[in-house]
Amino acid sequence: MTTPPLVPPFGGQPPPPQPQQQAQAARDVNTASLCRIGQETVQDIVIRTMEIFQLLRNMQLPNGVTYHPNTHQDRLAKLQEHLRMLSVLFRKLRLVYDKCNENCAGMDPIPPEQLIPFVEEDASKHEDRSAAQSRPNEEKREIVEVNKKLKQKNQQLKQIMDQLRNLIWEINSMLAIRS
């Protein structure tokens, strides 16, 4: 087995890449570029789906209206082509998804808290955390108290409205009897 020359001959074209080199290049696809391809594929899927719905909206049902078989066949062919392309796009998206998962399989998920740099010291972190945990409890207690007061006020307003309704009813009935 001979090795290919490192430098192409003078004035000549570089030798074509070996099949192993092509396979290696295909395996070393950047995950970020795969994500971009996936994003573009999702956008294509959305566009195709919108076109399918547009075609379906423009199709007329054969309910006694003049029927043009050629127009119907053209629209049906377009619809089938869009559905076929949609199927292809979903397969492409599945391949991109599988490849991204394969590339990221060895990575340990990093919690987002570790990605944010902190300037504080460790002691102040613990104090802030305990204060931050007690603050929501106090707020919750206050909210519950306010909620109880609001329910009481609502109950009082309901009683007043019922009394006014009864009073108006009695006044209307007295006026009806008088006339």
TrEMBL record:
Using the UniProt annotation, give all residue ranges assigned to the region (Disordered).
1-21
Q: Does the keyword Transcription regulation apply?
A: yes
Instruction: Name one molecular function that GO assigns to this entry.
Output: transcription coregulator activity
The main location is: nucleus
Choose any GO biological process term that the UniProt entry carries and state it: positive regulation of DNA-templated transcription
Superkingdom in the source lineage: Eukaryota
Location comes to: Nucleus
List keywords of the entry alphabetically. Activator, Coiled coil, Nucleus, Transcription, Transcription regulation
**What cellular-component terms does GO give this entry?**
mediator complex
Where is there biased composition of kind Pro residues?
1-19
Coiled-coil-forming residues are 140-170
Q: Could you say which protein family the record assigns here?
A: Belongs to the Mediator complex subunit 30 family.
Q: What does this protein do?
A: Component of the Mediator complex, a coactivator involved in the regulated transcription of nearly all RNA polymerase II-dependent genes. Mediator functions as a bridge to convey information from gene-specific regulatory proteins to the basal RNA polymerase II transcription machinery. Mediator is recruited to promoters by direct interactions with regulatory proteins and serves as a scaffold for the assembly of a functional preinitiation complex with RNA polymerase II and the general transcription factors.
Name of the protein described by the UniProt record: Mediator of RNA polymerase II transcription subunit 30
Give the originating organism. Takifugu bimaculatus
Taxonomic lineage: Eukaryota, Metazoa, Chordata, Craniata, Vertebrata
